[in-house]
Amino acid sequence: MKILKTNAADDGFYMPAEFSPHSGCILIWPHRRDSWQNGGYAARRAFVELIKIISLSERVTVCARYEDYDEARRCLPDHVRVVEMSSDDSWARDVAPTFVTNGKEIRGIDWGFNAWGGLEDGLYFPWDKDNKMARKICDIMDTDCYDCRDFILEGGSIHTDGEGTLLTTEECLLSKGRNPHMTKEEIEHKLCSMLGVSKIIWLKRGIYNDETNGHIDNICAFTAPAEVVLAWTDDENDPQYEISKENLSILENSTDAKGRRITVHKLPQPSPVYVTENDCLGLDNMNGEPTRTAGERLAASYVNFYISNGHVIIPQFGDKNDEKAVEILQSLFPTRKAVGLKTENALLARDILIGGGNIHCITQQVIALNSDH
Amino acid sequence: MKILKTNAADDGFYMPAEFSPHSGCILIWPHRRDSWQNGGYAARRAFVELIKIISLSERVTVCARYEDYDEARRCLPDHVRVVEMSSDDSWARDVAPTFVTNGKEIRGIDWGFNAWGGLEDGLYFPWDKDNKMARKICDIMDTDCYDCRDFILEGGSIHTDGEGTLLTTEECLLSKGRNPHMTKEEIEHKLCSMLGVSKIIWLKRGIYNDETNGHIDNICAFTAPAEVVLAWTDDENDPQYEISKENLSILENSTDAKGRRITVHKLPQPSPVYVTENDCLGLDNMNGEPTRTAGERLAASYVNFYISNGHVIIPQFGDKNDEKAVEILQSLFPTRKAVGLKTENALLARDILIGGGNIHCITQQVIALNSDH
Asked: Among all residues of A, which ones are annotated catalytic?
């Protein structure tokens, strides 16, 4: 593995859309007891069910700490690869590399990671194990790796259409805890030079109370070039209403890198999901302080789906909108099967949500060369 | 990765000779301060020099602990792969899988490992991280894995000719610290059923004072079918003399699996290498006790060479026999380049030997299918 100090775009590389072919998917086995309830067993089950679906059409690699390796290997299907790797938590979207390609070769980008805000408003300390994962994953995946650790970015804060357009939020990328020394223009320049995009559409804020400072991947996602889903509520009393309305207006008044207008599909939000007293009893403290408080609203959203080669896998909350979300996404991804992540006995999205994110946050696609797929 | 409970030989698999084509080689970054002198820096340099040579003709994967990953990555060439993996020490020969093939597929064998003798006369405690490495390596190498953890065996205690014959020592395989509940016949049966051999040649003892209970790979090795090198001394006052003479007699009176007589090439021993007071000052204690004592004889031997696709890489001790050993092995491996492991400024074998083994002990070949090579 070569560590590259150049800019990916200058080398002819770009980031394809998530709906382009993948050669694989990376996840991290959950373990933090202050992130995952009741020792993490429910989260494990959710991860395993998700991995089973993804692995129907993609090669899945799961990174497990030394302490967790045997259990991960035991719980996962044989055709899933488990590799030992240290981590602070389990958000592959944000700590695994962002893969880029020039059509002939795949490379990874190793962004700086500071637990969503570092000493300003980060969610845990330290985060060094997470920050070191991206290049280890590149080495295992046999790709060279761009060293971009001087720029703080999480994969969950960007979406691309693969045709020159990037979607992100100001709330996140202009947050004080990431790259406060850089202007918006400098951040734009960095994104363009590393991801091979030429147009950035800046939404304002992400999902209400999203502790990642409003990651794009919880509120808005490309479903095709010039086509997005946007998390939506018609309830004017919900603080989400203003946020979504503002973003809708931005999207409706934007064109993409190719000059196209954006078609926006509204994806209804589930009813608010709150942390309960019982949830709190199942979560360890972090440095003596609770990580959740009863009554806190969690950043639940159907937009946090993962697009695998064969499926679109969607969070389900036991909500009246669960089926509707699946239906809408099925109509938007006609060549894939849209599935809600649940079992006969359990709705699994909440078990992931309690950790602070959902399906998209715990996955990272490895893009395919055409010949791989 | 499938964990298999069957016998490899029943499945049509066998262990090829080390001089068969390899697809790669595995090593473990050195770290134990009670094994490797002066914080391990000299050992690192020796490992790096060795890896540079091996990687000229094989894909090298180095397993490094979380704590060592960054330094390993920094010190090693780009084309060498570094993967995070926990380990107790750095003897890939003994803890990495033994690879077997049926000509179409590669599989690994995960033997039980107990640090060369467990609670009887093992060299460190605990050894659980080492014992868990083999199947992790299989998962990374994309091979299924035979679970043979109920049988204690180190790769350094066996050599095969790839044509049905296995070489080992009674001192090691019949030692009390390994499989004391099994008879010699039961051990033979296990070796035949897992390695696809039909004839076992039992030498008596290994190199004098070899703390592995006399591993075969320090005293005798196949250089071709029906052809071996044997560590030799003409000094009748050296305790090694009787050991080598006894083994010579066994070899000269043996036939291999195909009924052939064995041609024995004597490989001269270096002059005895002793631990010095200065060596001891550079080694941490283990559980409060020194791991070496001044005046202790180390198990130096030229037989502990590694056969890569392109080279035969041989320990060098600054001894009058250094060049002779290289010459003999060059004549026996005419299609490979025989090289002594050293730099302009340093003889590197002693830096590895102080840890208790040498070049062969710290390497494990990954065999190639014909199409891989």
From this structure: 361
